[in-house]
Specification:
The structure is a single chain. The protein is elongated and about 95 Å long. The strands form two sheets. The protein has a two-stranded antiparallel ribbon with strand order 1-2. The chain is built from 17 helices and four strands. By secondary structure, it is mainly alpha-helical. The protein has three domains: 11-121, no CATH class; 147-289, no CATH class; 296-344, no CATH class. The longest helix has 23 residues, at 244-266.
Length: 395
């Protein structure tokens, strides 16, 4: 750590020394027997940097190694010696340092890792920490954004793409015309939806006359946007007052408005914004049925020989780690619904080759199961027909 750059150093040596300051910030001595750790020169107290430890008096400077601060057996700290060398706060910090009972030698450890090992990820975080602390993503906001806002957003029981889009819209990092021009691009185009006013994120999502009809169709009151100048400011004030369903619907609506905007701009589609709210309601119903947090979803379609859809079904399923089992349950549910609809001739299609192969299996027990109505469970003893089939299959 004290090596010099030297005369005409190589690129490798320059690179190593360039990271020395970072290592100095994150490295510390993990105390074993305390013999190789210098009290006043090394970093061995996590919250005290190397060279910042100050002796309580001149006599304390006589102590050089950490082993001199331990009892004779080296298993505990010597409270009396600590009190004569350090102030009360420092003594309390030292007493919190666990000692190695097997008298292993001291070793270098890394502050950023829970086990003391260095990771590039933890090194990067340590190097960028000061920059991140001084970074303000919302310089024009008149109030502080609580961390609880983002935690609440990421915990919403909806798909991640909706939440990421909402987060980007709050921070103004979606590529609206205003944001692109602010970053140096020359576009000179108005809002894609109304073709009148400049297209900022807040205008596109709320102020635009074309979009206001969407918010007017919702079953929740979102009219308070008129009292704010930005989405993040609005959310900072009102987000915690909303219920979970209102929050989810709001986030999904923003996503589908942005999706409609992109379809009109890049695909040149004629977009009907009146269908946005119906799409949001449908996605929310799917999320409720699926139970995003703890359940899976089953769904299927019924088509005739010409491909015309005559019906569909959707149902929740237990949380299962086996995707094949979920698809088998979906087929089972589809057969049950088809029977209720009076379908006599049914062809099953699925993207799971394994499940289809099992349905077409030559095992007699599988063939017998196709003709069973409802569920049949035997625990104590098997019927003779099932016992014969099992015996034949496995011999």
């Amino acid at each position: 750590m004290n090596a010099s750059l030297g005369y005409r150093p190589s690129y490798t040596w320059r690179s190593l020394l360039a990271g020395r300051d970072l290592l100095d910030m994150g490295l510390y001595k993990s105390i074993g027997d305390g013999k190789t750790t210098m009290v006043w020169k090394d970093s061995w107290i996590l919250s005290v940097k190397r060279g910042e430890l100050v002796p309580l008096n001149e006599e304390a400077k006589i102590i050089t190694s950490v082993c001199e601060l331990l009892d004779a057996d080296g298993r505990t700290w010597n409270q009396q010696v600590l009190d004569t060398c350090f102030d009360r706060i420092t003594v309390e910090k030292i007493l919190c340092i666990p000692l190695n009972k097997t008298h292993l030698p001291d070793r270098w450890a890394w502050k950023g890792g829970s086990n003391g090992n260095f990771l590039v990820k933890s090194g990067y975080k340590l190097a960028m920490r000061e920059s991140w602390e001084n970074m303000n993503l919302t310089p024009d906001l008149f109030c502080d954004v609580p961390t609880s806002l983002w935690k609440s957003v990421w915990k919403l029981p909806i798909l991640s793409r909706y939440k990421v889009m909402f987060w980007r819209a709050c921070l103004g990092i979606i590529p609206t015309i205003y944001e692109l021009e602010r970053r140096g691009m020359v576009i000179n185009e108005p809002c894609v939806m109304c073709e009148e006013k400049p297209e900022s994120a807040f205008h596109l999502l709320f102020e635009c006359q074309e979009v206001q009809n969407v918010w007017g169709m919702t079953r929740f009151d979102f009219s308070s946007w008129t009292y704010h100048n930005s989405l993040l400011e609005w959310m900072t004030v009102e987000w915690d007052r909303w219920g979970r369903e209102k929050q989810c619907v709001f986030v999904m609506t923003i996503y589908f408005i942005w999706e409609a905007r992109n379809q009109r701009k890049f695909v040149n589609e004629v977009v009907n914004l009146n269908g946005v709210w119906a799409k949001v309601e449908r996605r929310w119903d799917e999320a409720c049925v699926a139970g995003v947090r703890a359940k899976g979803a089953l769904a299927g379609l019924f088509r005739d020989s010409e491909g015309v859809i005559h019906g569909a079904f959707m149902a929740s399923a237990p949380a299962l780690n086996d995707s094949m089992l979920v698809k088998a349950l979906a087929i089972k549910k589809g057969v049950e619904v088809a029977r209720q609809m009076g379908v006599l001739d049914l062809v099953v299609e699925s993207d799971s080759r394994l499940v289809i192969d099992m349905l077409n299996s030559n095992y007699k027990i599988c063939k017998a199961a196709r003709h069973v109505t409802g569920e049949q469970i035997w625990q104590d003893s098997l019927p003779i027909c099932i016992n014969d089939v099992c015996t034949e299959n496995f011999h």
